[in-house]
Amino acid sequence: MINTFLQRLARGPLLADGAMGTMLYSKGVSYERCFEELNVSQPEVVQEIHRIYIAAGAELIETNTFGGNRYRLAQHGLEGEVLRFNRRAASIAREAREISGKPVFVAGSVGPLGQNLAPIGKIKLTDVRYAFREQIDALLEGGVDLILIETMTDLDFAREAVQAARAACDLPVVAMMTFGEDGLTVDGHKPEMVAAALRDVGADVVGANCSVGPQGVLNVIAEMHGADKGLLAAMPNAGMPTHYDGRTFYIATPEYFATMTPAFVNAGVALLGGCCGTTPAHISAMRAALPTMEETPTHPATTPILILESPAPEQELAPDEPPTGLAAKLAAGRFVVSVEMTPPRGLNPTKMLQGAEMLCAEGADILNMPDNAAARMRMNCISAALLIQQRVGLEVIIHFTPRDRNLLALQSDLLGAHAHGIRNILAITGDPLHNGSYAGAAGIWEVDSIGVVAILKKMNEGQDWAGNSIGEAARFFIGVGANPTAEDLSREIERLHQKLEAGAQFIMTQPVYDPAVLRNFLDAVGPIKIPILLGVMPLQSYRQAEYIHNELPGVVVPEAVRERMKAAGEHGMAEGIDMAREFVQTSWGWGQGIYLMPSFGRYEIAAQIMRTVKEQLAANTPVIS
């Protein structure tokens, strides 16, 4: 599977962010402070910097983890916080991306250890490997899109960092070293030798960062480009630092960076950004310089949001005609593939819409939209679904919870959704609020999911919950959830039967990793006359499998599956896709579709599984290889 980050680089230069430390310093944070500790003590400050860089035009942001290894943290007595600081940093960066709504990549920043190898220093290569792997594992657990190794002065350390990343995952790896004014590393290595050595151990992108400034880095990149035709990265400092009155200044201006941008692109740079001393102003200036260059492919444009002056007239449906496209496909016996897509956390829906366009092109039958899942505030699912149906033309199932709505608001929202053509409703009770965005908020829950189903059924009969006429019969297609791995299985089955009696018309299950467990559940439930979509959440790493099993309510990952993910090592994503395929193969015929739940918004994983399912359907055989 080709990673979307590498696909994006192949289209043309990608602009990264600038310095994190410089921005923190400008906000009054002392250089003596542990910047990584701010990820837990002042996450809003870190996130604000990410968002400012995104607004300036950055398509890639780096986590605030440059010194997030145990040796640098030990300087502050925090060596035991590697997991917490790095995982939270990744989460903060992803939250900033979600709020921006833009298709930005999150890079896990891995800096040098600040140590020397024995006999000059005290640490051995085995210690180096462990330290890098520990940090990288934590970044992966936080959901980064790639690993970015930067500011390495020692080639042996850089190689160990790349190898640690390669042993941990199959995500893209960017590796950059720093060079002196003479164009050599501290140990005297030439640029072309560095590029070859880093590619030999698995780096996808190599280059130079920090160093002396744009001109010096450009010279290094030119030498690399002469001997290496692969993807290159450049992130220079804003010149040499100068110190005045206890403060540090960098003299290279944003305008100067803008004038240097074409030269970097002409030298073969695919990933361009800034290091020490660079600010959002530098990134904004570089962003403005990129589109003016004819040889630079433009960033994929987003379609303008459609503003409908009035709803399109609805075609009259016969009383016995399926109310939605999903209902029609299921009634016709079609195998359906639904993909879960999370609404943005901010105002901008661009990333969501681009993901929807890609999934539509790959053949998804329908998307499904959570309703403030995990009690974390996001764009209203009805509005997000409307954008997708208008802009992309792909039908959406909305998850709908009574947690945040009393009976008045609940029915009001349903009427509005219906008027806008949002008719596929998955009735869910909703996650508790205590771990969400507003832990002190009060849940409402005047009814539970069974009550929502009953309300929807009554609306389909032309009445509201109080028995008042709503003018005509609604055309909702009513779905419910089921959890085959529930701890109290008898209660889960009892509630499912209550949902069926209340008027459910289709079922979507929680993710299941053991086909035998699913089979036992279906047998225990007994004959079901409505369609079932089987939940599939592809695993991406052993750490994620452990997290889902131990910390995600309602989902069980069997020990055999976790051990298989552990054995997969750095190939965890590929192994997770293979297991998802195998699950579909084994359970073929048990349901009428699958409900894909890709983690961290990696919709390309869903696309990979969809292609396999479509091939299987075309061949009219359940065999998946």
Annotation keywords:
TIM Barrel; 14% strand; 625 residues; 18 strands; eight-stranded parallel sheet; alpha/beta; elongated; 2 domains
Report on this model:
The chain has 625 residues and is an alpha/beta fold. The chain has 2 domains: 4-289, Homocysteine-binding-like domain (TIM Barrel, Alpha-Beta Barrel); 336-619, Alpha-Beta Barrel (TIM Barrel). The protein has 23 helices and 18 strands. An 8-stranded parallel β-sheet has the order 1-10-7-6-5-4-3-2. An 8-stranded parallel β-barrel has the order 11-12-13-14-15-16-17-18, surrounded by 7 helices. Helix 10 runs parallel beside helix 11, helix 11 packs across helix 12 and helix 20 runs antiparallel to helix 21 (559-568).
Mean pLDDT rating: 90
By helix and strand content, what is the structural category? alpha/beta
Overall tally of domains: 2
Report the C-alpha radius of gyration, rounded: 26 Å
Backbone shape: elongated
Low-confidence stretches: 292-315
Query: In what order do the strands lie side by side in the largest sheet?
Result: 1-10-7-6-5-4-3-2
Label the CATH architecture of the largest domain.
Answer: Alpha-Beta Barrel
User: With helices defined by DSSP (H or I, 4 residues minimum), what is the helix count?
Assistant: 23
* CA(first)-CA(last) distance: 15 Å
* Name of the level-1 CATH class of the largest domain: Alpha Beta
Instruction: Give the CATH topology of the largest domain.
Output: TIM Barrel
Please count the beta strands (DSSP E, at least 2 residues each): 18
CATH homology superfamily of the largest domain: Homocysteine-binding-like domain
What is the helical fraction, as a range of percent?
40-55%
Strand residue percentage? 5-15%
Describe the largest sheet.
Answer: 8 strands, parallel
